[in-house]
Amino acid sequence: MTAASKVRTLGASAVVCAIVAALFTGWGGPTWWAVPLLATVVAISEIAVVHLQFGRQRWAFSLTEGAIAAGFAVHGGTWPTVAVAAGVLVAQTIRRQPRIKLEYNVAQFAAGTALGALMATTLGSGISGACAGMGVFWLVNHGLVAVAVALTTRRPIGAFVWDSAPLSAIHSAGNSSIGLLATWLAQNAPVGLLGLLVPMGLLYTSYDQQTRRAAEARLFAELARGQEEATGRSADTSAQVVLTAAARLFGGADVEMVLLAADGPVRYSGDEFGIRSRRRVDPAAFDEPWVLRVLGNHGIRTGFDDGRPYCSALIGEPDDPRAAIIARRVPGAAGFGRREAMLAGVLVTQAESWLSVAGLTAERDQARERAEQSDSSARRLADLGADSAPALVVLRESANRLARLAAAPAGEDPIGDIVDELHAVERAVASLLGAIALAAEPDLASDLRAAASEVPVVPAARGVSDWTTTGVLEGADLKS
After folding, report:
1. pTM (predicted TM-score)
2. Which residue, 351, 423, 339, 440, is CA-closest to 388?
């Protein structure tokens, strides 16, 4: 038998227990509007549910216990069972819960309310009977949830109860006390009900803030852990860390991201275990329906696409987008709620910061590389000038002497003098070309000098030294 079949069997058993308890309890004598009123209050409370974290489990809390306690205290009978079951059914349908979860939650509340109503009616209802009835309701409700979690996750039921029971009992007692206080005020001092608005608002706000802070703490813990595992601070690394953190924080959802990198868009996909694929795509990736929805709606967007719940967001501004990200759950899974959308907002804010830092880091590295290249070019130019200066001096002086000899020949052998100057110019040009070549290839200089040290020096024939293998014109004795 599969886990789903076991859960359905447990839910059916809970429904049978509720029917048997209702037969023993009887309908009771409430006014005609009591049933729809209680059902409406329960539906509103279950829609505005708050999720708290117990270890690795998420537990849903609401103000439903207060409404049930009020029903137990006002009239005896099993009528609260019908009202609570109807309210939970409406709320679960509006929240688009999976079918198995909807059926089980309705059966779970029906059984707890029926057995609690039986206890409260047996004790004569009122405040004392309602307190006893709520104790039974909590035991049945918490026990059925614990068994369902043990069946679906194969966790020891004792460990789950130990983790979640204390806070769950305190929460149930607090909500029940508010319901009982409201009932007493309605019967004895109706104006005093206005005074309950503030504490109820503060109670709900505290639950909401606790949920948000717990989610943010888990978010930053995931981001910090991912950054510690990763190396570098590139946009690619930051995108992978953000994607993995989103998958883990959204209950193992499949996450996809299209990052607008400097050299074109990059598509990432993965889950809570890491990145499955990373590939460059063409700009047509931004024409996909989900990307167009993200680019056209700044902020967090939730809904269903082909039966799969999704939560999508734009990282960056509409006029300067950095990435589009979407998290999808399996078909039939629970949709993304308001608090998960708030968590996605925190994730997007952090992702914008990380990708901005990564972009600035890349720009800094590029600027540093360009500076190093410029510095290297400047050094090469300086070396070139230092190595070629002697050859340029010799070339200029030889050219000047050659111009004078050509304009006004003098001496015993003017033709020989002109030929000597032409040879000197030739050697100077060779020396200049050698200096330029050595500046372009610095490693060649050491090899040439080593080879030159092994070659014997041959005296110059006409008073001018030959061009050496180092490309430097040795001290020439030229005619003026």
Report:
1. 0.52
2. 440
